[in-house]
Specification:
- The protein is an alpha/beta fold and 541 residues long.
- The protein has 16 helices and 20 strands.
- Strands 1, 2, 3, 4, 5, 6, 17 and 18 form an 8-stranded mixed beta sheet that branches.
- The relative contact order is 0.14.
- The mean pLDDT is 96.
Length: 541
Amino acid sequence: MATPTQAPSSHEVDVIVVGAGFAGLRALHSLRSAGKRVAVLEAGTGIGGVWFWNRYPGARCDIESYDYSYGFDPDLEQEWRWTQRYAQQPEILAYIEHVADRFDLRRDVHLEQHVTQANWDAEGRCWDVATEAGDQWRGRYLIWAVGNLSATKRPPLPGTEDFTGRIVHTAEWPHEGVDVTGLRVGVVGTGSSGMQSIPILAKEADHLTVFQRTPNFSVPARHHAISDQEDAQVKAGYRERRRRVLESPTGLGFRPRKESALEVSEAERTAAFETAWDGAGFGFALTYRDLLLDIDANATAAEFIRDKIAATVKDPSVRDLLTPQGYPFGAKRPVVDDGYFETFNRDDVTLVDIRTDGLVRVTSEGLETESGKTFPLDVLVFATGFDAMTGSLLRPEIVGRDGLTLREKWSNGPTTHLGLGTHGFPNMFVIAGPGSPALLINVLVGIELHVDWIVELLAEADNRGTEVIEVEAEAEAAWGAHLEQRAQETLYPKARSYYMGDEIPGKPRVFMLYSGGLRNYRRLLTDCAAGNYSGFELTKD
């Protein structure tokens, strides 16, 4: 694997890929197999993307291991042995590293190459990319494989420099770990990373204080070790399993019941929810076809989960604070947890409602709220998530045609065609980013779908002698209208979430994903390619 050079250097390749996570490595393998010279630029000191950085206690995927994996190589499927239903971070990172070694990917990955600038050279018909290390890279094509949840977000609290304890962020967890034994720990945030880490931190700390703004819906993971018998059974039908995943609406392999949640009796509906609760994980949201489409149908699932919380949490006041109200289930990404609600029955765990008494500052000893209440802490954990969807794309300075920056172009929200590219930025593509299904489906399926499609497009460009590929403005506008239309058919806009850009003050509030499902999206990509890549202009200059 290439390491940073002592002095800045210049390099020229066919394709520059930014990011060495699942998307970047898959792009490297497929593009290199197609004969392209590829350089993957990675900001970190190791490969793995989000799974390199997210090492907090309890970090694991909320998609079953067999499905949260590459599907391009049957031999790889058979040789890798997953040990848990939902793989933990170390196992996922080990898998990624195994893939990198198996396919000899490391030699084209360049670490500690944090991209700060990318400029389109109209005369040369290529991209010039600069890194923080001072290196310069030039490539015909530029592909962003930076993920949707990689630009860390911290709360704008004054006083962090005064805190005498330790401050960590779940997305930047120290590789050596954090020993909280016997310490007073505070966790700010109850999204996925907070809800996964809180049960484990509670067992290790002397006292845990959880600072919650918005209670979240969650379903139990029902983790279990994978037996040899189960592993053999899955591998015997792995190709068929992959086919079912591709034909499912979300890439999870689950198919919702055809009837509405409102068309069955309460007893039948409750039985269906109980079955899903006891093993479907994230698939609980697919118990009925209209749970994310109809507010009354959704209310039946939301009330079922609220009843489960009520039956779990003993203290009535704590129970009320933990019970999500005021937004539909699934409109914010629900969490798949392991003992989260049970944790609040512990005497050494305190829940603080910062919606009614907000945090105002970090003091030398801990946190202070608007009412003047103080919370002494030894370790402060920010589980505050990311500048989602667009953050990792807007932090570098990306300059397209005529000096237009991507920040300017997307000042009112991201605009793309099929989520793959944006007008004014030729030969630039995004893998599983805004405008695509991305986080609404199994993102590994979306990644592989995008990579294969881009590789075929570049091959077609080579066949035509094309040097420039650019999204047409009309196609981009039509796709934006289609995204909005599909979003309004769902319940997603009815919640404040990172799907809508609500996680960052001042961020444009637009729904940034394609909500029509995996099957429909695959059809749209197929139709685009079959229609002479409609919406993309392929030219020689």
